Structure formats: C-alpha cells, structure tokens
Amino acid sequence: MPLSTPSSSPHPFVYLASQSPRRQELLGQLGVRFELLLPRPDEDAEALESERPGESADAYVRRVTVAKAEAARARLLAGDHAPAPILVADTTVTIDGAILGKPDDIDHALTMLERLAGREHDVLTALAVVDGEGRLLPPALSRSTVRFAAASREALRRYAMTGEPLGKAGAYGIQGRAAELIERIEGSYSGIMGLPLFETAALLRAARVEF
C-alpha cells in the first residue's frame, strides 16, 4: 500500500524512526528537517533486536534495520501522519565474531569494555529508507574499525560508572568520554556514532528528500 501517490516533488522532511539523540544531531548536521516516528507502547521494539543463533554481525544488523523499517512503515500507515520518507538505522559492535549489543547494567558494560581494551573491533551501522511511495530502498551498510587503547580495569570501571555506556552498542560512545580510550579509527566517524552521513545523504537524495 503506497504512502502517497508518486510525484516528482521533493519531500520537505523525513520521519526518523529512532530515539537516539546522536542520530537526531547528525541528521540535523546535514540540514535535514525531520519528525520522530517512534514505536507505540504496544510495540515490542526490543524483540526486533534479538539475535538469531549463528547469525553474523553483518546479517544481523541488516535484518534488524529492515525489520525496523517495515515496523515504521506500518506505524505510519496506521496513524494520522502526513506522507513522507522514513529513515531507520541500527548499529552493532562486533569482535571475534560476537555481537556486542547494549549492556544490561554497569557490570555488563565493564565486561564488554575489558574485551575491547587493547584491541580492534568493527562497528557496523546499517540504514534504510522507505520512500514517499512506501518502497523500501536497498539498505546501506557502513563498516568502521576502532582500536581501543590498553587500559586498566580501574580506568574502564571509572568510565563504566559514568553511565555513558548504557544504551550504547559495545558499551561506549565515541563522541563522549570514551574518546580518551580510542587510539585510532578507520572508516566513518558518524557511522560509529550511529548514522553514517555519506550513506544517509545518498539514500535521502534517492528518496527525493529536500535538504
């Protein structure tokens, strides 16, 4: 079912289906107008992010992003919303073939940080856009490599105790205090934050979003 009738007119805004302040900030950096399209109270948003046995990080982050896009499209169609494209994204951290999602608590965050310390890991961010006609455009994937410095358990615990790792894949935010622990990155800084701007701009232009 289309969200609107096909038109050559550009869309003045996009729906962002994410609660992440970082994604909102990055989208604003592009000069894109957006409105939030968040899960309803009756939606089980966490279930979308459940891992499947034997699933690779690449397959996981792509699948979750597509599932989020489909859920957001259904949300838009079910509500009283003006037609517009929808942007969704998902970020995961992977090391040794394992997926590091959001920590459950401070101790879980510390365990993750100890695993990352002194080593390299990959950060994957997948994003997708549902265009103004309700079509899911081919998702994009940004892959970056981050090297953490070796750090003592006490230093990692101090960082974990700030609370910053909670709610973040891999238990850290590169834009925050974790920056002092990061020796080097290869790839997209904005992708590590959660919204790779190069790929985002390309998808939004394909969906005829005006910015």
What does this structure look like?
The chain is α/β, with parallel strands linked by helices and 211 residues long. It has a single domain (14-206), classed as Maf protein (Alpha-Beta Complex). 31% of the residues lie in helices and 21% in strands. It has six helices and seven strands; from the N terminus they run βαβαββαββαβαα. It has helices at residues 21-29, 57-78, 106-116, 153-161, 189-193, 197-206, and strands spanning 14-16, 34-36, 86-95, 98-100, 120-130, 140-148, 182-186. Strands 1, 2, 3, 4, 5, 6 and 7 form a seven-stranded mixed β-sheet that branches. Strand 3 (86-95) and strand 4 (98-100) form a beta hairpin. Helix 3 packs across helix 4. The longest helix has 22 residues, at 57-78. The chain starts with 13 loop residues before the first strand and ends in a 5-residue tail after the last helix. Belongs to the Maf family. YhdE subfamily. Its EC number is 3.6.1.9. One of its GO terms (molecular function) is dTTP diphosphatase activity. InterPro entries: ITPase-like_fam, Maf-like.
